[in-house]
Every structure is written in structure tokens, then in C-alpha cells.
């Protein structure tokens, strides 16, 4: 996802630069284009933050699944030992 946002933002920046180069330095349109460029850069920043958050959530999910599996294995071992002890009595 962040790659797509970054590609779009790069294209926006290219277009903005091309148009700005054709405008006079004090043009209101040039100021507006600067705002658009800033918005595109902000979108990239937020896309990266979202991607980082997604990775953290995926890592936490993996950790939880591993912990759950370990607990399940421990419970199974305890039950087996308990059954073995019960059968000896």
C-alpha cells in the first residue's frame, strides 16, 4: 500500500515541479502547487506509518499464536502425565 502512495506522490511532485517551472515566482498558483506537493509528501509519511503499524500488528499476532501453541502443548503434556499417573494408581 505505501509503495503505491509513494509512487503517486512522486508523480505528483514531478508534475508540480514541471508546472512550477513554467510559472512566475510570485504566482498564487505556484503557492497552491507547493501545498499540493506538501500534501503528497504527508500522504507518503502517513502511508509509511500505517505500513509500520500493520507490521507491528502482524508481529504481535504471530507472537500470540506462538504463545497459544506453546500453552496448548504444555496443557497436553500435563494431561498426558496426569493420565499416566491416574492409570498407575
User: In one word, what is the shape?
Assistant: rod-shaped
The ordered string of helix (H) and strand (E) elements is: HH
Helix content: over 70%
Oligomer: single chain
- The tally of strands reads 0
Question: If you compute it from the alpha carbons, what radius of gyration comes out, rounded to the nearest whole angstrom?
Answer: 28 Å
Number of helices: 2
> What is the rounded distance between the termini?
61 Å
What low-confidence regions span 5 or more consecutive residues with pLDDT below 50? none
Structural class: mainly alpha
Whole-number total of structural domains = 1
The largest sheet is: none
| β-strand amount | under 5%
User: What integer is the average pLDDT?
Assistant: 88
Describe this structure in words.
Helices cover 91% and strands 0% of the residues. With 89 residues, the protein is an all-alpha fold. The chain has one domain. Helix 1 runs antiparallel to helix 2 (28-88). The model has no long low-confidence stretch (mean pLDDT 88).
Write a brief structural summary.
Residues 68-89 have a biased composition (Polar residues). This protein has helices spanning 2-21, 28-88.
Summary tags:
rod-shaped, 2 helices, mainly alpha, 89 residues
Summarize the topology.
Layout: H1 2-21, H2 28-88
